[in-house]
């Protein structure tokens, strides 16, 4: 077992592999094969969705369809600029330039994938009827009722939550437009959907954000998908290592494109500093057979003067300040990890255009709102198991502040800079007044 939580499979896919393999497969295309590149322009809810479908007419070539290739073009924000622009060059319009004459471009009017019309409601508002697991009498309330529909306190709450969602999506769109203008035509790589879990029965895509309720979300997805009867019966390890959930990067490009179009895309975020402290406490304050040797040892040997031999050998006892020094070091002695990687990178929010952006701070209410909106069985409610160190107090803002007191103002500022996009995209206020 490599790591404790939410990382049952860490990022195994080298983003380069996808590109390299794509180049190779494209190079081997003999000119005699009829190949066509389908461009599909889809107008989504106010957004332009461009899907590139590379279709081989030859059966043999279809067999070779490349699992590592760049998948589709969706509206978005590529996190790694160089990688995305490279992949754009490979799969996008430049492909003709790379292999002149090898590919025939066609504009297709026949939709290959189910396309939401311009006026159609967002996925999370319309998917109730599609969930085969739900019964008819559990038709979800419209999350955005017109004023006339508001009869009860409950309706008003639902309306408020739907408005909150709309304003979170709007803000994210604005931040994306400001910081990555024009990025919406870039392709989605396999790596960028590698944290996204698929639940087809209720048409959900969930991007896991560790330390923001992901174990319980996996339990819910398992129940929705029918691999468990109740969230209660699912042990922590099973939620992560035996969850029978598929991830989006495991589908072929058409499967990915289809699901990005049709499914409700779901993301839960958390106050970045609190998430960071939560990750630190979880991975470094109690025994951990992965994080201590793999991260603790290099961190101590790099940032602690006069470290004891015991500390150097075990990697136990990393302090929060040492951990932050590692995080902010441009020449980190050991790489990143999904538990503290910014959500803006983990889940590619500009690229994938999430329909539902929930907050850990009101996890249960918002998660249940979503479950009712998609027409989940009424006895399925969001659980609140605390999986990691159940006896330790949950990381609160007070606890997070205690840890940040170990840092001086420069370090605090740099930590804020590190998570700045998360603060911006998800509208969390500056945690300290003196930050800029
Ligand atoms: C769910 O419960 C039913 C009957 O209680 C049982 O037959 C079935 O195996 C259970 N399914 C799972 C996935 O545990
Ligand atoms: C919900 O009710 C159904 C049918 O009564 C039952 O099979 C299922 O296990 C229940 N699910 C949960 C999560 O309790
Ligand atoms: C490291 O140990 C040496 C010798 O014991 C001591 O002189 C020095 O001040 C220590 N340095 C730190 C940073 O503790
Ligand atoms: C804060 O700590 C860093 C070491 O992490 C040090 O380089 C810097 O000078 C300190 N800044 C202040 C304002 O004390």
From TrEMBL:
Similarity comment: Belongs to the sulfotransferase 2 family.
Spans through the membrane: 29-54
Intracellular or extracellular location(s): Golgi apparatus membrane
GO BP field: carbohydrate biosynthetic process; proteoglycan biosynthetic process
Gene behind this protein: CHST8
Keywords: Carbohydrate metabolism, Glycoprotein, Golgi apparatus, Membrane, Signal-anchor, Transferase, Transmembrane, Transmembrane helix
EC number assigned by the record: 2.8.2.-
Domain of life the protein comes from: Eukaryota
The keyword Isomerase is assigned to this record: no
UniProt region (Disordered), positions on chain: 116-151
Record-level GO cellular component terms: Golgi membrane
Main location per the UniProt record: Golgi
Protein name: Carbohydrate sulfotransferase
